[in-house]
Amino acid sequence: MNTVPAFTEELAAFAADLRKLRLDRGNRSYRDLAARAAKSATGIRLPVSTQSDAFRGERLPGLDRLMGLVRILHSYDEFGQERPIPPHNSAELEPWRRRWRALAALEAETTRREAPPTAPTAVTPTAPPAATPPVPSPPATAAGEAEFAIAHRLVGHTRLVWRLAFSPDGRTLASAGNDGSVRLWNTAAGRAEGVLTSGNETTAVLHVGFSPDGDRLASLSDDGRPHLWDTGTLMPAPLRGQDRRLAGGLAFTENGRLLGAAMEYPDLSVVDLCTDVRRGPAGARYSGRADALAFSPDGRLLVVAAGFEDVQQWDIASGGPVGAALAGHSDNVEALAYSPDGRLLATGSHDTTARLWHVATGRPLGPPLAGHDGAVNAVAFSPDGRLLATASGDRTVRLWDTSTGLPAGPPLTGHTLAVNAVAFSPDGRLLATAGDDRTVLLHRRGPVVERPASLASAALSAALRDGHAVALPAVSSRTGAPLRRLVFSPDGGRLLVHTADRTVLTLDAETCEPLPEVLAVPGFDPWGLEFPEEGGPARLWTAGTARRDPMVHPVSLMSNVAFRADGVLVAVAGRDGAWTTVRTNAAQELADVAPQRVWGASPVAMSADGRLAVGTDRSVALWELALPAPVESALSAHDSEVRTIVFSPDGGLLASGDLGGEIRLWDLTSRPTLGRQLVGHRGPVYGLTFSPDGRLLASAGADGTAQLWDVRTGGPAVALPLTGHTSAVWGVAFSPDGSLLAASGDDGTLRRWVLPDPQTATARPR
Question: What domain range is 333 assigned to?
Answer without folding.
Answer: 145-448
